[in-house]
Amino acid sequence: MALVRFQTENFRNLSSAPVSFSPSFNLLYGENGSGKTSVLEAIGYLGLGRSFRVSRHQAVARHGEQRFTVFGGLDQGLETFGSDSSGGDDLVHRLGIGRDLSQKETTLRVDGVSVRSLSSLARHLPVSVIDPGVFDVVAGGPGKRRQFLDWAVFHVEPSFGSVWQQCQRVTSQRNQTLRNGRLDEAMMRVWDRQYAALSAQISEARSATFHQFKTAFETLVQEVDVPWTDGLKLELFQGWDISQSLESLLLNHREQERKVGHTLYGPNRADVRLKFQGRPVSETFSRGQQKTLVILMKIAQGMVLSALGKQVTFLLDDINAELDEGHRAMLAQRLQSLRCQVFMTSIEHPVVDQLWPRGTAPDYRLFHVEHGKLTEE
Ligand SMILES: Nc1ncnc2c1ncn2[C@@H]1O[C@H](COP(=O)(O)OP(=O)(O)OP(=O)(O)O)[C@@H](O)[C@H]1O
């Protein structure tokens, strides 16, 4: 599915005028501070339930306003091969997310009906962001790579979101018991059993998606011919040595966990380890190679979802500042062949011939952004 209708109220500096987007490429250009990132950020709210650039909802509500809303209309998009979206009014889903700052309340709506869980909204619009912060997937800590992997697992395995939430609840109860002065061993064993069962489900889902991701990644690096990836190894670490039972591992490390006061083994410690000749790529690859690697990993995720018939909406924020012309073209052409929906921002008017060989550009819409208003050209 693709986001073809869009409207916001009180979202940063954005105008509340409704906008129609292409189910394929949307190129947004405008000067600094015009509102390009805000458009992507608002789209991100529909697919992620939060901002991809700030942690507090307050920051995105227009100054002086107590409530903001984002609406999106989805059509069939390009996901069913051979039956492209008409671009007409055949909306398949209507999504809405609003936040009341004074009540500290988020409202979610799917097709006019209030829903409680964010996943009910987010599963309709798989949003993948490529902005300057994305390079932390390689350069940053394991949490960034877990987030990267879990985004795909969430869209591949329908039950993953709820199992993950249950596991978070059990982990926090387990941690509270660990922190109690006198350890209640009987209670710990109850938590251990529940935690181990949920961890096994999470690990299984992660492992299945990771396998698909790795296969897609290996295919991709062969096709785009990046010789410096020879010797690169992608491995999933599940958060403990899975040749051992998690329950007995926890029992054997009771004293260690009691001292630190939290759970040290399990899915919260998982990582996608990226190694080149046995050493972390963050220590061996150049900045440029690390950036290219993240882009290839993002495309490989797109391949996994695309193979399941899901259209990913990519938000590419200011990639001109991060990627050279050749890599930008590679990215645009790959996303075109995966039939993704793409929103791409730039300060300068985009040069379409630099992204696709002449005559091969997909259907795209071009928008000039000025003072928060989008004007189609
Ligand atoms: N809460 C808010 N309420 C009103 N305006 C805001 C709010 N937050 C930011 N702005 C303003 O919104 C404008 C748009 O910012 P945005 O980051 O979207 O611009 P941009 O076009 O992506 O700029 P750049 O090219 O510099 O990255 C800026 O002028 C900013 O000062």
UniProtKB/TrEMBL annotation:
The keyword DNA-binding applies. It is found in: Cytoplasm. Pfam families: SMC_N. Residues 3-354 form the RecF/RecN/SMC N-terminal domain. One of its GO terms (molecular function) is ATP binding. Its main location: cytoplasm. Keywords: ATP-binding, Cytoplasm, DNA damage, DNA repair, DNA replication, DNA-binding, Nucleotide-binding, SOS response. One of its GO terms (biological process) is SOS response. The keyword Protein transport does not apply. ATP binds at G30, E31, N32, G33, S34, G35, K36, T37. GO terms for cellular component: cytoplasm. Belongs to the RecF family. NCBIfam families: recf. The RecF protein is involved in DNA metabolism; it is required for DNA replication and normal SOS inducibility. RecF binds preferentially to single-stranded, linear DNA. It also seems to bind ATP. This is DNA replication and repair protein RecF. The gene is recF.
